[in-house]
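Task card 7
Instruction: Convert sequence to structure tokens.
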Amino acid sequence: MALRPSKGDGSAGLWDRGAGKADFNAKRKKKVAEIHQALNSDPIDLAALRRMAISEGGLLTDEIRCQVWPKLLNVNTSEPPPVSRKDLRDMSKDYQQVLLDVRRSLRRFPPGMPDEQREGLQEELIDIILLVLDRNPQLHYYQGYHDIVVTFLLVVGERLATSLVEKLSTHHLRDFMDPTMDNTKHILNYLMPIIDQVSPELHDFMQSAEVGTIFALSWLITWFGHVLMGFRHVVRLYDFFLACHPLMPIYFAAVIVLYREQEVLDCDCDMASVHHLLSQIPQDLPYETLISRAGDLFVQFPPSELAREAAAQQEAERTAASTFKDFELASTQQRPDMVLRQRFRGLLRPEARTKDVLTKPRTNRFVKLAVMGLTVALGAAALAVVKSALEWAPKFQLQLFP
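Output:
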């Protein structure tokens, strides 16, 4: 059972573009029926569940998430949960840092929750984190990890959250949990190539400002859980990310920047101004629209096509003197959204791009992208995104859908 009131289930505003209440209820009821039909299929229709998680409104309620999230992560809910050692807090090298981070997580709990209940959940949060780390010594704790874990705890409870977080940590979050931030930095290097494909003007402006990508670090490593105040928006994004390729969060980060393009271009072209603007994420984003556009961009510009540009982005930076130093320092901050206000000015001027201007005109293509139907259960883009997720998934998932 969910630990939050079901009225905060993330479906507010669902299909309400002029639709009447009766139409809203009918569409919601239809989607709930389709989700349960997929769950009750033999075998379970995992592709349909992914489409439901991607499409408008996501999985609608926490009760449904309790049933679907384990399927998306291929977690067997009938197996007994991992058992925590009683001496884990004394033995763990990460305990003190985890304790500090969890104590600072007050705003991640529902307003008005009794102190006793919140404190109990915080203790459970600590236990989950330490247990996952103990069972997987190859994983390294990072500040911001607790923001992801608390989301699962609040939605599915301690028992199931432990299993889901462990699977997530060894797959989707694996690159963030390396001993260094090299792989995290590499993922962030996809941000500018995505923006460049859509709006070369915005890309060039940000490059000239030398703003880098540090502003999006906390977005990525917490799956936006730390920076968004509305819990229903956070779980809606988790529906989307769990159903998609692990790089989808960086596409969503890109569409947020693209959505704010005019604000950015109106800034002074310097690091401090642009970084300050982008690090303050708006709370009234059109989430469903951005989710749909992120899926569109993933289909049009898949990671395989951007890999070379992402690598070139890394080569164009004086890693040791500037960006990587920023990452190391940012990772030591007490809150993941406390990024550096000043950077070492070490970016090299980007090399002249040699792409055919007829292939990528110097205009804003974002507004010209066709909406390819992610909000429709059988939309072509939704199917493509689902297919990419299934292709990426571990072999034990592929066996379900040969």
